[in-house]
């Protein structure tokens, strides 16, 4: 099944999409920066002290990263020498909009990984590129966690030609347990949306080392690290951000995964939350207690991208493949992103996927719009290579906070 067909099939009668439409009238936002730039401190004057306290509790202002929704981060240790222990590592993988589009069937010697296409991102990921990349990230965490759990993992991608949702079969063989630095990074890797240290560059040797982690024929890394390359990538990302904000369908489908309320976060254990948004503690606290309009959200996201995330990046990167519609190549790209982010975590380098450009390219393609970002980005890439995932890296200025996760037991098929 082609990605277009897969997406079309999933979108018909799809619960996530309906949710998105229901939420259209509510505050909407975006993963990369909480869009609250329009809120000034003076706004607090309008909030009565008692009301603020109540909403502070309701919004979880006082309890960042705690509760059931974050318990999965403490459940991935090497002490569990069974296959379910590996699913505990899988659920901590990076994934687009934190939609966690995965399910696992577990036996003693095998884990089968399935796409949960009901958790698609609608117009934000119309060709399921990000869904496949997210699944690749989960597969990689299983492979990295296997030795620590006394297993070696052999991965077969897309093992069943009759079932395109069956994205991987991972066979496990007993080995002597060994814990690697990458394994240790599984529980400390977090997407860092804060500004990065403008005084520290990630050196060429580190970029080359990261490039060396691409180990399949079809995936490779392209860096944008010179001032001219960074300007070109940054300008296109900012323009893509504006294009998304101007696209009502993308705005609605983006908002469907946004969670502000403490109880909502604890109930869903997924989505984009305020704490890892890259905003200051003060703005985060205000955002949890005050409703934010769509216009404020979007203004804040654009401002954050333009004034902090893009200008403080040490370098931008793209994972490119030969065929952007090939599910196997997308899964490999996801495996590579997870491996890269774990390796950067070990080296104390921060990273944030910044995928506005490919999101617009897919949107143009699926909605039949005039090609704009497709040709513009192709001009920055090697011939016959297509970007599956784009990101920024740099040295941190502050600690990145965790996102919620559904625990392994909620995503295992019986
Ligand atoms: C395919 C893909 C695309 C993503 N795109 C973005 C993006 O454009 N902006 C962003 O801030 N984060 C992006 N992310 C990061 C996810 O939002 C993040 O992994 C998720 O919220 C879970 O948080 P964690 O990585 O800190 O565990 C992307 C991740 C993946 C795998």
From TrEMBL:
The domain of life for this entry's organism is Bacteria
Q: What InterPro entries does this protein map onto?
A: Nitroreductase-like, TAT_signal
The answer to keyword Magnesium applying to this record is no
Specify residue ranges for compositional bias: Basic and acidic residues.
1-25
User: GO MF terms on file?
Assistant: oxidoreductase activity
Any stretches that span the bilayer, and where are they? 33-54
Q: Is Transmembrane helix one of the keywords?
A: yes
Q: Note down the stretches annotated as region Disordered.
A: 1-27
Keywords from the named record: Membrane, Transmembrane, Transmembrane helix
Name of the protein: Twin-arginine translocation signal domain-containing protein
Q: What is the lineage of its organism?
A: Bacteria, Bacillati, Actinomycetota, Actinomycetes, Micrococcales
